[in-house]
C-alpha cells in the first residue's frame, strides 16, 4: 500500500470514459465502503448512505436515466439518449453517496452535508490506495427528483455524488494546482 502522504500528493481524478475493469473485488469493495463510513460525524448521526452499482445494475440504472432524460427532453436525439444510457457503463463500479441530513437540535444541516462529502473523499482515497482510480461526479441525475426517486431516495434525501471506480486506460496526468501563497492567509 502506498505511503499516505505520497498517495495524497499524487491522487488525481480520472474520467469514467478513461476507466476499464476489472473493478474492486468483493473484499476490496467492502474495505472501500468501510473506509467511506469512517469520517467525522458530529453526533454519530450517519448522515449518508451508499448505493452500489456493479455489473447489470449499471445498465439497469442507465435505462432509467435514458427514459427520464427522453421524457424531460422530447427533442433529444438518439445519440443524446444513448449517452445517458451508458452513463454508468464506463467504470466497472459506481457508488452513489446519498446525503441523509436532517434537522437536528445541535448539529446543523451543513455539518451533516460536509460529513457526506468527507465520505465521498474517503471512498476515493480508499479506492486509490487499493490501486484503482476514481472520479466524483454529480450531473443532472444528482439534482433531478424523478431520477432520485427512481434510485430509491427518500423525499428528504439528496445525492452527494457518484464515485466512479476502475482502472485507468491511460497514464494519469496531473493538472495545474493553485500556489499555496494564493490560497493561504496567515492570521
Secondary-structure blueprint:
Blueprint: H1 4-10, E1 19-20, H2 26-36, E2 48-54, H3 56-72, H4 78-85, E3 93-99, H5 109-129, E4 133-137, H6 145-150, E5 158-168, H7 180-183
Antiparallel strand pairs: 1-5, 2-3, 3-5, 4-5
Helix pairs in contact: 2-5, 3-4
Architecture overview:
There is one protein chain. By secondary structure, the chain is of the alpha+beta class. The protein has one domain (4-168): NADH Oxidase. 40% of the residues lie in helices and 17% in strands. It contains seven helices and five strands; from the N terminus they run αβαβααβαβαβα. The chain has helices at 4-10, 26-36, 56-72, 78-85, 109-129, 145-150, 180-183, and strands spanning 19-20, 48-54, 93-99, 133-137, 158-168. Strands 1, 2, 3, 4 and 5 form a five-stranded antiparallel beta sheet that branches. Helix 2 (26-36) runs antiparallel to helix 5 and helix 3 (56-72) runs antiparallel to helix 4 (78-85). The chain is globular, with a radius of gyration of 18 Å. The N and C termini lie far apart (37 Å). The mean pLDDT is 96.
